[in-house]
Amino acid sequence: MNLCRCQSPARNQGVKLIGIGSIGLGVSEIRVRKRKRLREKDLKALSDGLLSATGVEVIGPKDTVDIAEGPDCELIIINNVIEGMIVEGRPFPTIRGLLRNIAIKSFVTVDMGAVPYVTNGADVMAPGIVEVDPDIKEGDMVWIRDVTHKRPLAVGRALVPAEVMAVKTSGKAIKNLHYVGDKIWKYDER
């Protein structure tokens, strides 16, 4: 239970208990269905896919890994936290997965002016990009980070290759698929 200090007309100060049920209402609209535990063979393939996409080992030897159907993609649940997703057959970490294991590949850095828009779900526009991983190709999954703290803000799909992203002066460069504060992010705040 969470404690909340509040003013009441009868007393100057009081403590109001707020139950978990009242906080969690409407927090997450995501529906996770058909959750199943991965077998060793499937786990190895998934782990290799995440390693090739990010450059870091995302799944540890003692982690429990499940796959479930999400709203728009399959979700990778590691130790009961959604830490990855599979979009068009390609695995990629969610923001929580990137916070736990900072990737060294597939990043796009945006300036601080773009941060409020990206964290509200807007696609990334080319003028806001300041740094790009040179190995990104059109259609690749990428993670977006801010220039100051280098923390993950969103996950998206590249609409143009890295060479074009670096020099493009107008238009969309990345389609935003998952961002801080969306349904996947809020699912683990319950």
Explain this structure:
The structure is a single chain. The radius of gyration is 19 Å and the shape is globular. The chain starts with a strand and ends with a helix. The strands form three sheets. The chain has a six-stranded mixed beta sheet with strand order 9-13-12-11-8-10. The protein is an alpha+beta fold. It has two domains: 33-100, Nuclear Transport Factor 2, Chain: A (Roll); 107-181, Archaeosine Trna-guanine Transglycosylase, Chain: A, domain 4. Residues 1-28 have low confidence and may be disordered. It has six helices and 13 strands. Helix content is 22%, strand content 35%.
List keywords for this structure.
190 residues; alpha+beta; Nuclear Transport Factor 2, Chain: A; 2 domains; six-stranded mixed beta sheet; 13 strands; disordered N terminus
